[in-house]
Write a structure and sequence with these properties.
mainly alpha; CueR; about 60% helix; DNA-binding; two-stranded antiparallel sheet; about 5% strand; transcription regulation
Length: about 140
Protein backbone atom coordinates (compact mmCIF):
# COMPACT_ATOMS: atom_id res chain seq x y z
CA UNK A 1 0.00 0.00 0.00
CA UNK A 2 1.55 3.43 -0.95
CA UNK A 3 2.37 5.92 1.81
CA UNK A 4 -0.22 8.60 2.45
CA UNK A 5 0.62 12.05 1.10
CA UNK A 6 0.34 13.55 4.61
CA UNK A 7 3.01 11.32 6.15
CA UNK A 8 6.30 12.94 7.08
CA UNK A 9 9.06 11.79 4.76
CA UNK A 10 11.80 9.80 6.44
CA UNK A 11 15.22 11.33 5.84
CA UNK A 12 18.66 10.06 6.72
CA UNK A 13 21.12 12.38 8.43
CA UNK A 14 22.72 13.48 5.16
CA UNK A 15 19.38 14.40 3.63
CA UNK A 16 18.26 16.24 6.78
CA UNK A 17 21.58 18.08 6.86
CA UNK A 18 21.29 19.08 3.20
CA UNK A 19 17.71 20.31 3.60
CA UNK A 20 18.53 22.35 6.68
CA UNK A 21 21.90 23.74 5.62
CA UNK A 22 23.62 22.18 8.63
CA UNK A 23 26.40 19.61 8.35
CA UNK A 24 25.75 16.04 9.49
CA UNK A 25 28.46 16.52 12.13
CA UNK A 26 26.58 19.51 13.55
CA UNK A 27 23.29 17.60 13.49
CA UNK A 28 24.91 14.98 15.75
CA UNK A 29 26.39 17.75 17.91
CA UNK A 30 23.01 19.46 18.34
CA UNK A 31 21.49 16.11 19.31
CA UNK A 32 24.24 15.54 21.87
CA UNK A 33 23.55 18.98 23.38
CA UNK A 34 19.83 18.25 23.57
CA UNK A 35 18.90 21.04 21.14
CA UNK A 36 17.46 18.46 18.80
CA UNK A 37 15.48 15.59 20.32
CA UNK A 38 16.63 12.02 19.90
CA UNK A 39 15.17 10.75 16.66
CA UNK A 40 13.90 7.36 15.62
CA UNK A 41 16.47 4.86 14.45
CA UNK A 42 16.27 2.00 12.04
CA UNK A 43 16.95 -1.55 13.23
CA UNK A 44 20.52 -1.05 12.00
CA UNK A 45 20.90 2.16 14.04
CA UNK A 46 20.58 4.83 11.34
CA UNK A 47 18.88 8.05 12.40
CA UNK A 48 15.56 8.93 10.78
CA UNK A 49 14.48 12.55 10.49
CA UNK A 50 11.23 14.19 9.47
CA UNK A 51 10.24 17.69 8.45
CA UNK A 52 9.82 18.70 12.10
CA UNK A 53 13.49 18.00 12.82
CA UNK A 54 14.58 19.73 9.61
CA UNK A 55 12.55 22.79 10.64
CA UNK A 56 14.24 22.74 14.07
CA UNK A 57 17.65 22.47 12.41
CA UNK A 58 16.86 25.49 10.24
CA UNK A 59 15.82 27.39 13.37
CA UNK A 60 19.11 26.47 15.04
CA UNK A 61 21.12 27.40 11.94
CA UNK A 62 19.41 30.80 11.66
CA UNK A 63 19.98 31.41 15.37
CA UNK A 64 23.67 30.53 14.95
CA UNK A 65 23.86 32.83 11.91
CA UNK A 66 22.70 35.65 14.20
CA UNK A 67 25.40 34.77 16.71
CA UNK A 68 23.29 33.31 19.50
CA UNK A 69 25.10 30.92 21.82
CA UNK A 70 23.96 27.37 22.47
CA UNK A 71 22.33 28.22 25.81
CA UNK A 72 20.39 31.06 24.19
CA UNK A 73 19.35 28.81 21.32
CA UNK A 74 18.12 26.17 23.76
CA UNK A 75 16.00 28.79 25.50
CA UNK A 76 14.72 30.20 22.19
CA UNK A 77 13.81 26.71 20.97
CA UNK A 78 11.77 26.09 24.11
CA UNK A 79 9.99 29.40 23.67
CA UNK A 80 9.43 28.74 19.94
CA UNK A 81 7.81 25.40 20.71
CA UNK A 82 5.66 26.79 23.53
CA UNK A 83 2.59 28.41 22.00
CA UNK A 84 1.76 29.93 25.43
CA UNK A 85 5.09 31.73 25.57
CA UNK A 86 5.49 35.28 26.64
CA UNK A 87 7.01 37.32 23.82
CA UNK A 88 8.68 39.51 26.44
CA UNK A 89 10.99 36.58 27.20
CA UNK A 90 11.99 36.32 23.56
CA UNK A 91 12.58 40.06 23.32
CA UNK A 92 14.70 40.00 26.50
CA UNK A 93 16.98 37.33 25.00
CA UNK A 94 17.27 39.25 21.73
CA UNK A 95 18.08 42.55 23.44
CA UNK A 96 20.65 40.92 25.73
CA UNK A 97 22.28 39.50 22.62
CA UNK A 98 22.24 42.93 20.95
CA UNK A 99 23.99 44.40 24.00
CA UNK A 100 26.59 41.63 23.87
CA UNK A 101 27.15 42.25 20.15
CA UNK A 102 27.58 45.98 20.80
CA UNK A 103 30.18 45.26 23.49
CA UNK A 104 32.06 42.88 21.20
CA UNK A 105 31.93 45.36 18.31
CA UNK A 106 33.39 48.06 20.57
CA UNK A 107 36.19 45.70 21.65
CA UNK A 108 36.95 44.75 18.05
CA UNK A 109 36.90 48.39 16.95
CA UNK A 110 39.44 49.22 19.65
CA UNK A 111 41.63 46.28 18.55
CA UNK A 112 41.43 47.41 14.93
CA UNK A 113 42.37 50.99 15.82
CA UNK A 114 45.33 49.81 17.90
CA UNK A 115 46.60 47.55 15.14
CA UNK A 116 46.18 50.29 12.53
CA UNK A 117 48.11 52.71 14.72
CA UNK A 118 50.89 50.19 15.32
CA UNK A 119 51.08 49.27 11.63
CA UNK A 120 51.32 52.93 10.65
CA UNK A 121 54.29 53.32 13.02
CA UNK A 122 56.10 50.33 11.53
CA UNK A 123 58.37 51.11 8.58
CA UNK A 124 57.89 47.65 7.15
CA UNK A 125 61.36 47.65 5.63
CA UNK A 126 64.62 45.74 6.12
CA UNK A 127 65.30 47.21 9.57
CA UNK A 128 64.84 44.89 12.56
CA UNK A 129 63.06 47.42 14.81
CA UNK A 130 59.28 47.01 14.81
CA UNK A 131 56.80 48.92 16.99
CA UNK A 132 54.24 46.14 16.54
CA UNK A 133 56.50 43.55 18.15
CA UNK A 134 57.65 46.08 20.76
CA UNK A 135 54.04 46.66 21.79
CA UNK A 136 53.22 42.95 21.88
CA UNK A 137 56.28 42.29 24.00
CA UNK A 138 55.51 44.87 26.69
CA UNK A 139 54.97 43.40 30.14
CA UNK A 140 52.12 44.42 32.38
CA UNK A 141 49.54 45.10 29.74
Amino acid sequence: MPAAATETPVLNIGEAAARSGVSAKMVRHYESLGLLPQVRRTDSGYRQYGEREVHMLRFIRRSRDLGFGMAEIAELLKLWQNRRRNSASVKRIALEHVADLERRIAEMTAMKQTLQRLASCCHGDERPDCPILDDLGQLGR
